[in-house]
Amino acid sequence: MLCDMSKSNEKSPSSPANAPCPNEDNESYPSSDEALSLPTFVAGSGTLDRLVETARDYAKHAASENTLKAYTKDWAHFSRWCRMKGIDPLPPSPEMIGLYLADLAAPTGKAPALSVSTIDRRLSGLSWNYTQRGFNLDRKNRHIATVLAGIKRKHARPPVQKEAILAEDILDMIETLGFGLRDLRDRAILLIGYAGGLRRSEIVSLDVGKDDTPDSGGWIEILEDGALLTLNAKTGWREVEIGRGSSSQTCPVHALEQWLHFAKIDFGPVFVRATRDGKNALKTRLSDKHVARLIKQTVLDAGLRSELPEKERLALFSGHSLRAGLASSAEVDERYVQKQLGHASAEMTRRYQRRRDRFRVNLTKAAGL
């Protein structure tokens, strides 16, 4: 629907001429038709139209599915907040966004205050959404930057880290699994995720071979000495080497081979759903939520941190517990752990190390005190 001329005259000079009209229902991420199309002064043709479709397809892969979902929710929340205040979310108003951030940190209603990291993420979501709608949000504007800096100074807390699943823990967890088809799959998920230091999304996005499926996040090659995983990760393509273990009971590569053999999988997604009777593997790829549920269930079944109430035990562990466990348990040079986890810096790797000798180098004594 075209904008009313009287409304268009009230727009900010920075608003693009062909920007979508502010609309109370315009909460979702702009459709590909809206985000990418031919300029109005260019006549369409078969070749150009095909290129537009290709560009739209690439645009859909500009961010991960989970990130896009989060950004969509961020925009929906901000749009509702604007409606309650009687304002339009478009074009961006740094003053109102500053007030929005303040309301997230110290809400006036019954809504709980958000953490600093969540508020920062919300702002990133708004910035991304404005860009998709043809606007520019200046995060350095004083109305935004100073409010955010004040929130961080007043409310920032050390990050709450998930408990690391150490070597003895993962062994206890896989001991709770039987030898049915689902158990073979879940054992392979835990061991491959642990030995590879993989994220939940990286585990379930694996395919058997390259280019098996359009939604693949990588593929595996099983070699004599282990498994080589090629991943399309956040920082780009990387390879993860998973060597064979000391015994078949704990070897992640053997567990993977067993699952693929008995599930009769030689093409497509590696980790898939099974039939209700647990006798056959289906073609449907597992969700990353399955990995989270699997970790929490086996943590309970193995009796980890049994001194705590069940609710607290469940809150301690997540998919990141596998990555933190590898970083904390592997007694090797730090740079090898950094490479396995795909971290750009050693400092990031150290954040995952829950059990390390922090006072191995004593600078106090070295300084003569």
Task: Provide an overview of this structure.
It is a single chain. Helix 8 packs across helix 12. The chain has 17 helices and six strands. The protein has a four-stranded mixed sheet with strand order 1-2-3-4. It has a two-stranded antiparallel ribbon with strand order 5-6. It has 369 residues and is of the alpha+beta class. The radius of gyration is 25 Å and the shape is globular. The chain has helices at residues 5-8, 32-35, 46-60, 65-85, 94-105, 116-132, 142-155, 167-175, 181-196, 200-204, 252-263, 288-302, 310-316, 320-329, 334-341, 346-352, 363-366, and strands at 206-207, 218-222, 226-233, 236-243, 272-274, 281-285. A hairpin with a 6-residue loop joins strand 5 (272-274) and strand 6.
Short structural summary:
The chain has 369 residues and is α+β, with helices and mostly antiparallel strands.
Topology (SSEs and partners):
Blueprint lengths: L4 H4 L23 H4 L10 H15 L4 H21 L8 H12 L10 H17 L9 H14 L11 H9 L5 H16 L3 H5 L1 E2 L10 E5 L3 E8 L2 E8 L8 H12 L8 E3 L6 E5 L2 H15 L7 H7 L3 H10 L4 H8 L4 H7 L10 H4 L3
Parallel strand pairs: 1-2
Antiparallel strand pairs: 2-3, 3-4, 5-6
